Amino acid sequence: MSKQIWETRPLEIWGKAKELRANFQKAINEAAASPNSLLAHGNTGGVDWSVGFDGLNVVEDNPIGAIMASRSDSFSREARLASEIRGWGRELCGYVNNCWGCQFLGYDSPDGAPFPYRQLSVPLPDPCDQHAKRGQQCMDLSPIPRFGADWPMYLGPIDPERESALVEHKVQCILHVINEIERIFGKKYDDEKLFNVLDIVPRVQVLVTKIAQLMANVPAPLGLKELYSFYTLSVLTKIDPQEMLDFWKAFVDEVQWRVDNKIAAVATERYRWMEAHPSPWHFLRYFRYMEQYGAVCIGSQYSHMLVEPFKLNDDGTIGREEQVKVPEGQKIRTREDALRSIFREARGERFKDDEYFRKHVITDFAKAFHVDGAIMPLWRAGVGCTLTRKEQGLRLSEMGVRVLHYEGAQPGDRTDLDEHDFLDRLDIWMESQGLEKLA
Amino acid sequence: MITAGVDAGLRNIKILILDGGKIAAKGIAPSGGAGRAKAIEKLWEETLSSSGLRKGDVSKVVATGEGKNDVLFADKLVTEPIADARAAKFLLPTAKSVVDAGAAKTRVVTIGKDSNIEEVVLNQKCMGGLGLLLEVIADRLGWDLDEMARAKAGETVVNDGCPVFAELDALEALNKGASREDVAGAVTEAVAVRLHSILYDKVGVSKDATVFIGGLAKNGAAVNALQKRIGANFTIPDDPEYGTALGAAVIAAD
Lengths: 439, 254
Known about the structure:
The complex is a heterodimer of chains A (439) and B (254).
Chain A: E1 7-8, H1 14-33, E2 38-42, E3 56-60, H2 61-71, H3 73-84, H4 94-105, E4 120-121, H5 131-141, H6 160-185, H7 191-214, H8 224-231, H9 241-260, E5 263-264, E6 271-275, H10 285-291, E7 295-300, H11 301-304, E8 310-312, E9 318-320, H12 335-342, H13 360-368, E10 373-379, H14 389-398, E11 402-408, H15 419-431
Parallel strand pairs in A: 1-5, 2-3, 2-4, 6-7, 6-10, 10-11
Antiparallel strand pairs in A: 8-9
Helix pairs in contact in A: 2-3, 2-4, 3-4, 4-5, 6-12, 7-9, 7-12
Chain B: E1 2-8, E2 12-19, E3 22-30, H1 36-51, E4 60-64, E5 76-77, H2 80-91, E6 97-101, E7 106-111, E8 117-122, H3 130-141, H4 163-175, H5 180-199, E9 210-213, H6 220-230, H7 243-252
Parallel strand pairs in B: 1-4, 4-5, 6-9
Antiparallel strand pairs in B: 1-2, 2-3, 6-7, 7-8
Helix pairs in contact in B: 2-7, 3-4, 3-5, 4-5, 5-6
């Protein structure tokens, strides 16, 4: 085992990241209080179109639900219970139950502001969990307009004909939603703003991918906990597109500098592990716990592939797998084409590591990032549930990567994770690989 | 050289003292719940006393088990699979795997050629409490735990996916008039099914070079059902509940 001690230091870009996140929260609070702004309930992906409406702020339950789980044990348990006693299933996505419970109880949101009630809801179904149900509670409680947007999908090999037909269906759904928002709320849609975003987003995606690529270096310049702090600024938290681009440029520069100067996330790095799906958001301290063993998490398929599927090139470099896209060089001139570029695929997959379609991804990922082990939660519900996790674990074991599984309900549900057992498992896992805590 | 291993488990504390590679003394006591540290200290003194040893005679103490942090006199702490693997090699030098099934948890450890640990499989939640299940059922039947050996396979079947449901099924069967032997047979079969699943969770176990330790190994009916199910012949020490403590004592002698 390496006894190398690397230099480590805090990221300088933390300040800017916190400022962007605070501005996002401020915009939500202002929108909730202003008669001229709209607060929409939406989904993680596919809401880029919303920038065309001035004063329309989209709030996504995932990060808010996760923050609620982190806020306090009693708060989280109360919120979930409030949801459960109204009949919502215990195994419903934890993010959703947290948010709904919070609304039922009339609690303040995690930053102390009143819970941001929405003026409209545009739930987009998603193959990963119960996104389609998300708008229902918002609508029932207020009530507010709820737009149904379909998410038709299929499984199996990519079929261009089906792709085209199903993508077109999604596009027409959103065109309808845009027209209805204009009609109901008297808002004018600005196509140029949408085109501008679609020009910027791919450039941000390149930068996000670059960060992922840099994580293959030894020592790792960041840990997964840091990555999780930033990735919401590109995907889950909608901020000014140009500001987002500037932020990611600066972030890449700093991480590249860390790589060039061997600045490590964990000074004693001697063990690298990967993950595949979201961590328990209220219990991220296990990353720090693992540092006692000189272990660093170099990322997960979840953190590295939110923008595009990961691909290990023949020459060992890390790239992005090509998907069905708007043909290269085709300039977006219409709202329809813009939406087609957002909803560019209809073939269903989960987190782009589809066990049936891209079996190689999990092992390629392990190779590319030089990992010794993998921690793979078995979530019963919601984001990244257990489906195919054991198969992936076996595949990694066969290539010599030691795998640790632990169980829980859902990353945003803190009521059913045995934290002590989890830490015990980490100790057993590390000791059985010959590693002891460093003095 | 005299060394000791302490296994502070969920249900019981086990202490084993080794003297020159031979077992000099051993002791077992309830875990003591919130007063575990005191219970460990008391058992430590009793075990020493039973063998005529004094604390100063013991060169090194290694502790393991869920309550290992409560072994305040330990020189070293190790996680359970480390001790399990060492115990297996001590008991059977050709051991390739070890199964440790206790009151709360079950572990399977595969051992490499150079005695390193190749893989550890830990039970998942629904696999927990198999040892406790047997205790609870024995209590329901009005038997001592040892009497569970009277189990016979019959018509009764209980849930083999969850110990809680298994207990409910067993009670229902008793209420409908099933014999105690029949119910015990159904429960031990269910335990064997669950053990089978963890044994083959990842890499499987050796059919003829596996050591079976932990309190559950004392239940001949369950072990036989498991061996029959997978066609294996386990090596089971005389007092299997001391297995992990033995491994800790061996480590202390290193």
